[in-house]
Amino acid sequence: MIVFTTEVRDHYVIIHLHGELEGVGAPERLAEHIAELATRDLVLIDLSDVEPIDLTIGDLLLQIQHRRHDRDLVVVHHGLEARQRLRSMRHILPVVPDIGCALRGSRSMDRATAEAR
Fold first, then answer.
1. How far apart are CA 104 and CA 23, in angstroms?
2. Right CATH number for 2-116 from 3.40.50.720, 3.30.750.24, 3.90.1170.20, 3.30.360.10?
3. Average pLDDT score over the chain
């Protein structure tokens, strides 16, 4: 069973997932809930407390990406091997080791965009 909590900030939302994704249709249903929570420009999906990182998680990320292609989505996981597995899956979302990396990367992209104007 997956439990999730959210932290909503001015410009981003963090969705922390905990547990195991199981059951037929689970990725679709969870992706729908997460898409509803993705109300900011930057959405961080923290999978650090999810096991196992398998194709079901890859399907979940594809579903979220499909539903919220209008948002910047970043996957967070503390484990090196899990990040490597996540990066090898079909989704094209960035995978970072912690929330700080995601936020620093987002600010760098914002500055570069502003300077290009």
1. 36
2. 3.30.750.24
3. 86
Q: Is the peptide bond before 52 cis (omega within 30 degrees of 0)?
A: yes
Report CA 78 to chain centroid distance, whole Å: 13
Provide the pLDDT for residue 107: 53
Residue located via tokens 């195991």: 20
For the chain, what are the domain ranges? 2-116
Residue type, position 94, single letter:
P
Alpha-carbon distance of 61 to 113, in angstroms, equals 26
- Model pTM above 0.70: yes
Q: Strand locations in the chain, DSSP E?
A: 2-8, 12-19, 42-50, 72-76, 95-96
Higher-pLDDT residue of 33 and 110 is 33
Q: How confident is the model over 26-45, as pLDDT tens digits?
A: 889 899 999 998 889 899 99
**85's tokens:** 């597995």
